[in-house]
Amino acid sequence: MGFFKAMTNYAHKAELRESKDEIAVGGIIRGLAHRGWVCHRIVAHSDRQQLGFRLPGDPVLSAVYLVVDRRSGSGAISASMGSRTTLGFAAEMRNKVSDPDDLAAMWRTDLANLFKIPVAGEVRVNHQLNTVLARTHHLIDLDHYVQGNQVDVEPLVGWIVEQVDALREHLRPLKK
Amino acid sequence: MPRPDESVHWIDAAGTQQGPEPFETLCRRVEAGQVPPTTSVWWPGAEAWTAFADLPPADPTPAPPVAPAPPATASAAGDPAMAGLMGGIADQELDDEFIALVARSWELYKETELATSIDEVMLGGVITAMVDSGFLLIDLSTAGVVAPTTAETGVSLPPAQHDLRFEEPTTGARVTMSLRHLTADAATAKLVGHRAEAVIGYGERVPNFSQVGQALRQEVASSFIASPEPATVSFDADMSSGYVYAQIDLLLELGRYVSDELEVDHALLRRHLASVVYTMQTFVRTRFAS
């Protein structure tokens, strides 16, 4: 452990602009934690963070996954174009026992998804066995929430909760 | 025909009614010649007195008792083998047992899930505590070797190490944390508890860069020391930004901060973080006070 190697694990981004997505992610984790969500999955690589949350007591959803993908990167492109970021959502619903009819539903939804062009905001339901996922994604600009030291992620957190509320309604009829 | 142990009455040679006594006793009397075979016998349930000689001979070795036929459940009706399998168990009991097996399976699955995610729940708690305090998360990365998929459950284990870095926006002071999960499988976690290695650091920009070089030289020397012991405080430096860090290696029990229901004890977590950051800050300022 330790000794002169810990610092090599950090990106050492020179400006806060380069850390905009991490700052937003920190605010998202904190904001959702205050709403009772538990962050239980964090996989982060350069300009792409995947987060998983448990929603204790939720009548439909077992987990929600968010992918923050900073498409414009953190370098010069971002400085000129803004911080265009794709925010991917996957709401997961688990049934304790799969219904044999789910097998048929799996094929139907998989087939239907084949013909769907991934358009921002469109919801795709992916029916598996015990698990059913509703996915969508949106394009946002992190500059609206993070400007240097000025950080106000709370509106973004509220908007995320609204998107998850919508996904929950797509899954509710499939809850057994 | 009475059973051997069934009480019977009989008429003796004087015409007097005798008994009650077990039928098998009367049989022995007849065999011994004490009572003639013509004697009349009656037992409760018999329609009339019957001559002993007219009764069918008793079977000396009664057949073993036969298990009562199981009541057929609705599910097994018309299928003898299924009736044999499910015999004696009501449909509601079968349903209840099935539901209990499924529920227990989910409990076991959640044990595995907890073992693989408790370190990340801890990280979420650290991020919440630090951002709540006014720090900004400026670095978040996943590193280390990806743990293999467990053959038993098929659950992919998460990567082994996470690195966090926070910055206080007004002073630029930084806090770092590297967390490496040591017990990412359920069996080990059950045996020793959920454990993790953590390296927690505090960093400041130092005005005199030569001091950074001094710290670096010292660290180059100490980098040859391989010590598995915790509580080792070391200095580290970031040449590009001019920060000097004091950091400490600790072993943490994740179960102290995260319950089996994934509830985070934010108060304890913040208290422990504060104590370590305070101490590391003291090391940095003492070492580079001038």
Describe it.
The complex is a heterodimer of chains A (176) and B (290). With 176 residues, chain A is α+β, with helices and mostly antiparallel strands. Chain A has one domain. Chain A is 30% helix and 30% strand. Chain A contains four helices and eight strands. Chain A has helices at 20-33, 76-81, 100-114, 154-171; strands at residues 38-45, 48-54, 63-70, 84-94, 124-127, 131-141, 146-147, 150-151. In chain A, the strands form two sheets. A six-stranded antiparallel beta sheet of chain A has the order 1-2-3-4-6-5. A two-stranded antiparallel ribbon of chain A has the order 7-8. In chain A, a hairpin with a 2-residue loop joins β1 and β2. Chain B is an alpha+beta fold and 290 residues long. Chain B has helices at 23-31, 80-86, 91-132, 186-192, 209-222, 266-287, and strands at 7-11, 17-22, 40-42, 50-51, 136-146, 159-167, 174-181, 195-205, 233-238, 243-253. In chain B, the strands form two sheets. In chain B, strands 5-6-7-8-10-9 form a six-stranded antiparallel beta sheet. A four-stranded antiparallel beta sheet of chain B has the order 2-1-3-4. In chain B, a hairpin with a 5-residue loop joins β1 and β2. The model of chain B is unreliable at 145-156 (pLDDT under 50). At the A-B interface, α1, β1 and β2 of A face α3, β5, β6, β8 and α5 of B.
How do the helices and strands line up, and which of them pair or pack?
The complex is a heterodimer of chains A (176) and B (290).
Chain A: H1 20-33, E1 38-45, E2 48-54, E3 63-70, H2 76-81, E4 84-94, H3 100-114, E5 124-127, E6 131-141, E7 146-147, E8 150-151, H4 154-171
Antiparallel strand pairs in A: 1-2, 2-3, 3-4, 4-6, 5-6, 7-8
Chain B: E1 7-11, E2 17-22, H1 23-31, E3 40-42, E4 50-51, H2 80-86, H3 91-132, E5 136-146, E6 159-167, E7 174-181, H4 186-192, E8 195-205, H5 209-222, E9 233-238, E10 243-253, H6 266-287
Antiparallel strand pairs in B: 1-2, 1-3, 3-4, 5-6, 6-7, 7-8, 8-10, 9-10
Helix pairs in contact in B: 3-6
